Amino acid sequence: MVETTITGQSGKPDLTLNPSFPTATLVERKDVTEDLMVIKLEVSEEFNFKPGQYCTLGLDKIERAYSIVSAPYEKYLEIFVELVPDGELTPKMFAMKIGEKMSIRPRAKGLFVLDPKRHHHFQLATVTGVAPSVSMVRQYLHDGLDNGHVFYIMYGASYLDEFHYDKEFAELAAKYPDTVKFVPTVSRPTEERNAAWQGVTGRVNTIAEEYLAKFDLPKDDTKVYACGHPGMIEDMKEKLPPQGWDFVEERFWKP
User: Fold this and answer.
1) Are 33 and 162 within 8 A, CB to CB?
2) Fewer CB within a 10 Å sphere, N or C end of the chain?
3) Of 134, 120, 152, which Cα lies nearest the Cα of 53?
4) What are the boundaries of each domain within the chain?
5) What is the pLDDT of residues 1-31, one digit of tens each?
6) 71-108 per-position pLDDT tens digit
7) 161 closest CA partner among 42, 34, 64, 40
8) What is the distance of C-alpha 172 from the center of its chain?
9) How far is residue 110 from each of residues 1, 66, 183, measured CA to CA in Å?
């Protein structure tokens, strides 16, 4: 790999980047918790993707795939990142300053995209695994409501402060009640950190079947999407496809 060093707006040299790839400049950052952040990146050239796909970001010869939160119509690439202290890339990302750059592979990838043949989209997500759901819903609402699709967002986390996109989904569910259904749930309701929580409790995978029945979803017109914790995905993969549910998964990559 040929390498180069690019200087960011901070005046300090950025980490080593691959010059054969476009760059992604950090333009905005919001810390959700000590180990969760949402960043927005400005890509140096046109970057096309479908809602639900992922991009590959890199620093110092280390590359990882991240599901894209933003919809294709948005100006910046939005990414929800979880810090893994002993990870190879995320500590470097958390140390970045506004104006510094990462490399980005020029093409998005992934088959975890909206299935236009199904009208009911039952989406199971944990923490940062909500990214594809956000992208799909934003783009669908942007394009208009003329196709009769309905999104059922089951959003799980251990702690309520990990729900960065809960307000957005709650507002969309209130504004478009026939299109967006939103069920956030915490898995550790008795811990002090969740003292203010008054909503649904339990892991996403332990309540999914209850809500499939509650929403009365038709198996022949429903797609189940699972993204996030591998344990949640494995559990759902073992339970739902044998019952006849159309199922697709997206697993987290190594940090």
Assistant:
1) yes
2) N
3) 134
4) 23-104, 120-251
5) 222 222 233 334 345 676 779 999 999 999 9
6) 999 999 999 999 999 999 999 999 999 999 999 999 99
7) 34
8) 17
9) 24, 11, 26
Q: What pTM, to 2 d.p., does this model score?
A: 0.90
Nearest Cα to 227, choosing from 108, 126, 154, 158? 126
Residue 95, C-beta contacts closer than 8 angstroms, at least 6 positions apart:
none
Fold of 120-251: Rossmann fold (3.40.50)
Q: Which two tokens stand for residue 117?
A: 């043949």
CATH architecture of structural domain 23-104: Beta Barrel (2.40)
User: What kind and span of H or E run contains 134?
Assistant: helix 131-143
- 8 Å CB contact between 170 and 141: no
Name the one residue in this structure whose structure tokens are 């690019």.
Answer: 6
d(CA 180, CA 216): 15
Residue 42 backbone dihedrals phi, psi, to 5 degrees: -105, 115
